[in-house]
Amino acid sequence: MNKIITKEFLSENVVKLEVEAPLIARSRKAGHFVIVRVGENGERIPLTIAAADPDRGTIMLIIQQVGKSTRKICALNEQEYITDLVGPLGQATHIEHFGTVVCACGGVGTAPMLPIAEAMKQAGNKVITVQAARTKELVILEKEIRAFSDEVLITTNDGSYGMKGLVTDGIEKILQREKVDFCVTIGPAIMMKFVSLLTKSHQVPTVASLNTIMVDGTGMCGACRVTVGGKTRFVCVDGPEFDAHQVDFDEMLIRLNAYKELE
Question: Which of 84, 155, 177, 191 is most enclosed, with most CB atoms within 10 A?
């Protein structure tokens, strides 16, 4: 069991938890995730490790309340316990000196982007973060992402904060003024699809961190399978990051929507 050290609401439905997990805190890298479970019969939920403090022995998890299981996790308070927490899982982000890197994130996708932006900056890249949300109230972790970015461009659908428009509008603005050497995108699948189409048209290498349905997280169940470059890949063990220009996003969207009625 893993104790919750601190809890903070970042918005009405998004909660930040600092959780005691010393072994994971020491070994995690950007891109890694954990699977958590609340209650002996609870659902297994994958969550990216947004940050870690090896000295405190804690990791930071950002959870959006969208269903029964995420609401159960978010209902926990400080000094209470998460039943199970397994990780770090998945493949770490490939980090190198690319040059100018655009980090394009939407909604709670800012959370998994945070350690990637940090690692890209530490590798000597110029990091430009494009952070998108529907409204100003849904912009999260702005202060934290700015600490690892040379520039942050915020877009909101309604224009209540930053530039009015979508994440692709922000990326297009950057592409028009300077050369971009690499792009990382994390957010809703439909957002990542259109980011990929845009960067492909500009011949900018791009990776996407996929958020498929996941059960065991070890490659056994096959629930997280996606088609990348015409081949089946498992997001939990082969990913979560893949060449965005090779991902079959249309197939992925169909699979993601398969259980909408049950949800």
Answer: 155
Question: What H or E segment, with its residue span, contains residue 166?
Answer: none
Q: What is the pLDDT of residues 96-124, one digit of tens each?
A: 999 999 999 998 899 999 999 999 999 99
| Listed residue (201, 175, 202, 193) closest to 244, CA to CA | 193
Q: Which of 3.40.50.300, 3.30.230.20, 3.40.50.80, 3.20.20.100 is the CATH number of 100-256?
A: 3.40.50.80
Neighbouring residues of 5: CB distance < 8 A, sequence distance ≥ 6: 18, 19, 20, 56, 58, 78
Token representation of residue 170:
């922000």
Amino acid at 35: I
Domain boundaries in the chain? Answer: 2-89, 100-256
CB atoms within 10 A of CB 46: 22
For 211-228, what is the mean pLDDT?
84
The tens digit of pLDDT for each residue in 33-49 reads 999 988 888 788 888 89
- Say how far apart CA 80 and CA 263 lie, in whole Å: 27
The CA radius of gyration of the chain, in Å to the nearest whole number, is 18
- pLDDT at 67 (0 to 100): 80
Distances, alpha carbon 136 to alpha carbons 103, 150, 163, in Å: 19, 21, 11
How is domain 2-89 classified at the architecture level of CATH? Answer: Beta Barrel (2.40)
pLDDT of 217 higher than 90: no
pTM given for the model: 0.89
CB neighbour list of residue 60: distance below 8 Å, 6 or more residues apart: 16, 17, 18, 19, 49, 50, 51, 52, 53
245: pLDDT strictly greater than 70: yes
